[in-house]
């Protein structure tokens, strides 16, 4: 059972690492080529939602950052 949980955990870590790499790639491409994928606009919308939500949005953002931090 521990081996199965370990395999699932490893798979999830690899998947989230891939997603982080794709977001960074999208930001770099957006900077170089005028945001063809809309990644920078999406990040801007996310930050404006956090600003509109006030303290609750800040706490949610902190939780997301802590979740991705290893």
Structure description:
The protein is mainly alpha-helical. It has one domain. It has helices at residues 2-32, 39-53, 55-68. The model has no long low-confidence stretch (mean pLDDT 86).
Shape: flat
Domain count: the total is 1
Strand percentage, roughly? under 5%
What is the gyration radius calculated from CA atoms? Answer: 16 Å
Count of helical stretches: 3
**Run of helices and strands:** HHH
Largest sheet entry: none
Could you tell me how far the N terminus lies from the C terminus, measured between alpha carbons in angstroms? 24 Å
Low-confidence stretches: none
Number of strands: 0
The secondary structure category is mainly alpha
**Please, what is the average pLDDT?**
86
What is the share of helical residues?
Answer: over 70%
Draw up the topology in text.
Elements (H helix, E strand, L loop, with lengths): L1 H31 L6 H15 L1 H14 L2
């Amino acid at each position: 059972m521990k081996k199965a949980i370990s395999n699932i955990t490893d798979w999830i870590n690899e998947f989230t690492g891939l997603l982080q790499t794709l977001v960074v790639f999208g930001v770099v491409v957006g900077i170089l080529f005028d945001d063809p994928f809309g990644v920078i606009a999406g990040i801007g919308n996310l930050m404006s939602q956090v600003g509109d939500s006030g303290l609750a949005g800040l706490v949610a953002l902190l939780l997301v950052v802590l979740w991705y931090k290893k």
